[in-house]
Amino acid sequence: MKSEPRPPGALREVAAVFLKLGVIGFGGPAAHIALMRDEVVKRRRWLSDEAFMDLLGMTNLIPGPNSTEMAIHLGARRAGPAGLIVGGACFIVPAMLLVLALAWAYVTHGTRPEATGLLYGIQPVVIAVVVQAMWNLGRTTVRGPLSAAVAVAVIIGYFAGVNELVLLFGGAAVVPLVQHGRARAALGLYGLVSAVGTAAVAAPAAPATSAAASASLTTLFLTFLKIGSVLYGSGYVLLAFLRNDFVSRLGWLSDRQLLDAVSVGQFTPGPVFTTATFIGYVVAGWAGALLATVAIFLPSFVFVALSRPLVPRLRASPWTAPALDGVNVAALALMAGVTVTLARAAIVDPFTAILAVAAVLLLVRVRINSAWLIAAGGALGLAARLVFGR
Question: How far apart (Å, rounded) are the C-alpha atoms in residues 164 and 365?
Fold first, then answer.
């Protein structure tokens, strides 16, 4: 990619812009990207709308959180290799520090009635936020019988115990094979995925460690590094990976603790991937929080740096677009499967069921900011616990 002259003070400008966006960036990836466009295209004129959309297209072809990768891309565009690091880090750090403080409070005071009341009301609202996100994503992701069939197959595979990576890469392979007239090869691949799923169910489960003290920092780092390296789709798809690794495989978290972590990631500004900071602190303290954060975001910096000169050529390939479609459909289906599982832990009585339904209706009809809705859910949950002892 051809280098461009850097204006004086470009690196300081990148740091200021993305620190600001990291502090005010509520509302999820779509809101983050809208804020970035307003800041760097309309106000500061770093680049044109067309160039901005090209960068956004690049982020869809590589794993990782799209809004964070946009911050990395835009920082590199404005201030070169140093801007690549500064833009991404400044967007991540404010959320990471806030989540770290909340994780400390959760571990220190999480069993107090006030804390449990807040989480009692927040958790069903988070489920509603995820459901609304799935609905919006599904309208653009599931486009015809083929993608619908892949989604159904992935959901079945998820509940059969198939590893989420097998399901993601299976979706990436099946869609282009079918679209290029190789349906027999696609059916063979589905058979392979089914066989892997059967083996996964038949195999004895690995013993899970129950105490957070037994968490290995190396395992923690490598697990989050793997997640950051392979996760496509919305940040909400992170739920499927987190549950498979930290609840089912390692046994370091319960479903309720995972929901608490996701609730904090939803309530705070910046990338949803800072959920990793919370989980890292819960299972391994300050060192775990920092290692988890570095591990989950590190692949995004590497992928952006490597893809800047390569992605334009990848986009021209007739196999790339349908493969990406397949990954996105599989990611959405994984998100649906894990939401069903987590809803069982969040919606435990009529009060939480009413909260969840009301939150979905408000999100669909009023388009309220999810952060305010989560805050309201926490307030109602706290009131219910304190007044009625629920």
Answer: 33
| 237 vs 134: CA distance, rounded Å | 10
Report the chain's mean pLDDT, rounded to a whole number: 80
Judged by DSSP in three states, 268 sits in coil
> According to the model, what pLDDT value does residue 200 have?
46
DSSP for 30-95? HHHHHHHHIIIIIIS-SS-HHHHHHHHHHHTTSSS-HHHHHHHHHHHHHHHHHHHHHHHHHHHHHH
Question: Residue 328 corresponds to which tokens in the numbers above?
Answer: 């996105």
Instruction: Specify the pTM.
Output: 0.71
Give residue 86's pLDDT: 96
Work out the percent of the chain whose per-residue pLDDT is above 90.
26
211: confidence class by pLDDT, cuts 50, 70, 90: very low
Burial 258-291 (b: 16+ CB within 10 A, else e): bbbbbbbbbbbbbbbbbbbbbbbbbbbbeebbbb
Is residue 359 scored above 50 in pLDDT? yes
Assess whether pLDDT exceeds 50 at residue 147: yes
For residues 380 and 356, give the distance between their C-alpha atoms in angstroms, rounded to a whole number: 12
Is the pLDDT reported for residue 140 higher than 90?
Answer: no
Residue 98, C-beta contacts closer than 8 angstroms, at least 6 positions apart: 268, 269, 270
96: three-class secondary structure by DSSP: helix
The stretches of the chain forming alpha helices (DSSP H) are 10-24, 29-37, 49-59, 66-109, 113-141, 145-160, 164-179, 183-202, 217-230, 238-242, 255-267, 275-307, 311-315, 320-346, 350-365, 370-383
Angle (CA) 139-22-20 rounded to 5° is 125
